[in-house]
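Appendix C reproduces, verbatim, an entry submitted by the partner laboratory led by Prof. M.T., so that reviewers can inspect both the input and the predicted structure.
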Amino acid sequence: MDKIFEYKLTTLKDELKKMGKVAIAYSGGVDSNFLLKVAKDTLGDNVLAITINAMMHSTREIKEANNYAKEFGVKQIVYKVDDFNLPEFIDNGPLRCYYCKKIVFAKIKEIASEHNIKYILDGTNLSDLDDYRPGLKALEELNIISPLKDAKLTKNEIRILSKKLNVNTYNKAAFACLATRIPRNHKITKEKLRMIEKAEDFLQDLGFTQYRVRLHEDLARIEVNKDEISKFYDDEIINKVNLKFKEIGFKYVTVDLNGYKMGSMN
């Protein structure tokens, strides 16, 4: 292992040891999975994974998180939110993520407190600071600790270390809350989110690795990695996607020739 990776991993473990007992806001993605693995290896049973399951979350992602928590042998609490009707979230303004994180992490803190856990961690890494993320302010206000960021770990370094630690999500595609597929100031509804979820699940089933289905009224704008755009040259794929998306409820289906770009709706 390169010295820089070893140093950062040791720094992360040392911080975890100082805390002794932690709760991790756990989505099952690349970052939180890596953090959960290292925390489990470092603190044993003094780790609790807390997963929020609300309308902006993918059912497939929640199931994957459940499976990984079991694989690591970490106790997990999944808190189901039936109606996430926060007006600032539904209205989808520029601070949507801030208000959402504020509510979600307040609940995570409450659950952690019920289990006598003082330290609540999340998977924010150093690379996240390069994007527009108003939710980070909410984490700061709630005293949520981001040990990956504090250890100066970038997204790429987390993937490399995950592979070295045999964490299967080392090459998992980036994912984000489904609300990020809806243009700002366009209202978020359960119906829209489920349409997006079904469409993205279908693309994954077809073998696409990195994708987003951006919703513009009744139009679906598909983003995939540039090296996967050529798959749409196949008439069979085109017809399958077109028919499925129309069945889901989209009137128009397009492919963005710029390819996938993180945060393209910001």
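DSSP finds ten helices and seven strands in the chain. Additional entries are available on request from the coordinating office.
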